[in-house]
Design brief:
It is a single chain. The chain contains seven helices and two strands. It is mainly alpha-helical and 139 residues long. Helix 1 crosses helix 3, helix 1 packs antiparallel against helix 4 and helix 4 crosses helix 6. Strands 1-2 form a two-stranded antiparallel ribbon. The chain is elongated, with a radius of gyration of 17 Å. A hairpin with a 5-residue loop joins strand 1 and strand 2. The two termini are 19 Å apart.
């Protein structure tokens, strides 16, 4: 399984904002340079982060974006789940009707457990820990 670039770049975006939090609003162009990601792609990623109230846009000459929450209050799992569209590894977990075998599938429970384990680990890591170079208690 591979995480999409959306969630990988999204976690880098949030981490960059956490690292530069004391500098005030950060422009996407600055983050794009530091992270080697296109501004256009970051503009797409920032939209759900704003809607979910992780990020706030600031207008004006010194405008940009700031985190609305403290880095210690944001987990990697929250951001990955938001940008991947949930915590499931398979459509049949969230939408059992999407697969005619979901009621009798002998592997469905395994996929559910794998997703739970992965997100338990990701949810145990805050951006404050990442900022400090820590990986979290379970890793």
């Amino acid at each position: 399984m591979k995480l999409s670039t959306r969630s990988r770049y999204g976690t880098r975006l949030i981490l960059d904002m956490a690292q530069h939090r004391d500098e005030g609003a950060v422009q996407l162009s600055e983050i794009a340079k530091r992270q080697d990601v296109s501004v256009k792609y970051l503009e797409q990623i920032i939209i759900p982060l704003k809607k979910s109230k992780y990020v706030k846009g600031i207008r004006g000459a010194r405008g940009g974006y700031v985190l609305k929450k403290e880095p210690k209050d944001i987990t990697v799992g929250e951001i990955v789940a938001l940008l991947e569209g949930g915590e499931s590894l398979c459509d049949c977990i969230d939408k059992p009707r999407s697969c005619k075998k979901s009621k009798t599938c002998m592997t469905r429970q395994m996929w559910m457990e794998a997703a739970r384990t992965m997100f338990d680990n990701l949810n145990s890591i805050t951006f404050e820990e990442l900022k400090k170079g820590e990986c979290g208690p379970n890793l």
